[in-house]
# Entry
Amino acid sequence: MTQPNAFSQFPDVAGRFGEFGGRYVAETLMPNILALEEAYARYKDDPDFVAEFDLFSRDFVGRPSPLYFAERLTEEFGGADIWFKRDELNHTGAHKINNCLGQVLLAKRMGKTRIIAETGAGQHGVATATVAARFGIPCEVFMGATDVERQAPNVFRMKLLGAKVHAVTSGRGTLKDAMNEALRDWVTYPDETFYVIGTVAGPHPYPMMVRDFQSVIGREAREQMLERTGKLPDVAVACIGGGSNAMGLFHPFLEDESVRLVGVEAAGKGLDGPDHAASLNGGKPGILHGNKTYLLQDEDGQITEGHSISAGLDYPGIGPEHAFLHDMGRAEYRSATDAEALEMFQLCSKLEGIIPALEPAHALARVRDLAIELGKGGTILMNMCGRGDKDVFSVAKALGVEL
Ligand SMILES: *Cc1c(COP(=O)(O)O)cnc(C)c1O
# Structure
């Protein structure tokens, strides 16, 4: 049986978080997965590896990111104090690079000469291409053909960074198809290739490894909160696409029983219809991309396309550790609609001088409720996981403003 308050012990040796996670992959993929697992176990606590991760986190990414008191939003909502962990200030504008740095450094240790990645909106592709460029490792990014058209600026960025972009035409030509294609490529060229997965999904050890690399967010934030406020926050809040920035924030707080953990999924046009991307609030357990977790699916168990105004939140699944924390009740999962995210995008820009990405704008909508719920004297820590420069065109369009 699971020990209460021992959530940070997971996954088990088979990569399971309770009934979730694991590795449901083709036999041909197993040697790659096992080699990766072995390399990660060998290097994760290796002093040279850790020192290199820390050095590049500091000088290339710009860590530690500041902790910031959002004074005017706190005043506006009229309740608990709101603090932002400012991961939007990282190089490339979001948290994704923390994980890419860790995985590319591991690829280098493993002697890999080729990096591949999947990408949806292109943010993970850009972050991977950025780190691959720095270490001089050729990079190929799989991207759904539909997304290649929708996200032309990010395709151009990846090319500037020296990456090759493959347009994937199978399925609907979106993120799920790109991930399938990347897995296929990895089986085809196993010896030279390292596959950098962009969120806490995929077969074991990815959900654990990505979480560990992203946990730099929560470790810094925990220390910074203690230093600045003299106590732990009452609640830690983060938005959820696949769940990597949330897991990175949550993990160092898992054993702090007093700290509530709240993830915010994309409710799109509302949970009562099909146009959302809330895998926990509107999906059910199944298997996708090598792990068992909550997924958006139709009555026949076919994976459905998620919808969100925010391209980073429309993955049709969620990391298996979130599924576990959800079912155990250690974390709560709420949601926010497109309309709420748009409202918060504008409010945060106006009041704090910070244009948030549409993803964390979802989290802000529930921060507002939590601020009122907790009242004055309470403290909320929210991960400002990305900046909104990338979103200004789609927000202008949604608001009917012509640029
Ligand atoms: C990609 C992205 C997300 C969603 O990914 P997670 O794995 O859930 O963190 C959220 N916010 C931003 C800014 C992103 O770029």
Notes: The first strand starts at residue 16 and ends at 17. The chain has two domains: 27-58+96-210, 64-93+216-398.
